[in-house]
Design goal:
elongated; single chain; 2 domains; 74% helix
Length: 156
């Protein structure tokens, strides 16, 4: 019985310790695992949706600098999608070439009456991209009901 316990104790570290592929894996295994870890687009799209709402409400409140920040962050996230999901790169580029310049002009005007139609065109660019990527069922309101940023929900 004592011998059995000693053998089990000697085997236990071998059984419980797996090699860490990040440090001990071959370069091809490391690359394969990293590619597997790259997520799909849904979490980036969720963040873009939050920034979309904040963009609308920042403009509505006349917080143009914050609105411009939202546009810049949306653009950065779309570029991440292009890199992480090459099959989405072409439609993402179309969005960057159509939606972003229009909304940049709307924000730069610092006038709600000019921003609002630019925002509607941004919405159209979003819906076009969703449709081309078999996600037409994901729709965004042209007039978001609320902002998610505490910056926009704080009393003046």
């Amino acid at each position: 019985m004592k011998t059995s316990i000693i053998v089990l104790l000697l085997l236990f570290p071998v059984v419980t310790s797996q090699a860490d592929w990040r440090e001990q894996g071959s370069p091809s295994d490391q690359l394969a695992n990293l590619v597997e870890l790259v997520p799909g687009t849904s979490h980036w799209m969720f963040e873009i949706g939050e920034r979309y709402k904040n963009l609308y409400w920042a403009a509505k409140q006349g917080r143009w600098e914050f609105a411009q920040y939202q546009v810049e962050e949306i653009e950065k996230l779309i570029k991440v999608v292009q890199l992480a999901r090459p099959k989405r790169a072409e439609t993402a580029q179309e969005f960057l070439e159509t939606g972003v310049p229009i909304i940049n002009d709307g924000v730069a005007s610092k006038k709600w009456d000019l921003f609002k139609p630019a925002f509607a065109k941004l919405n159209q660019a979003c819906m076009t991209c969703h449709g081309k990527n078999d996600h037409a069922f994901i729709t965004l309101p042209v007039e978001p009901a609320s902002a998610s940023s505490p910056v926009l929900n704080l009393p003046d």
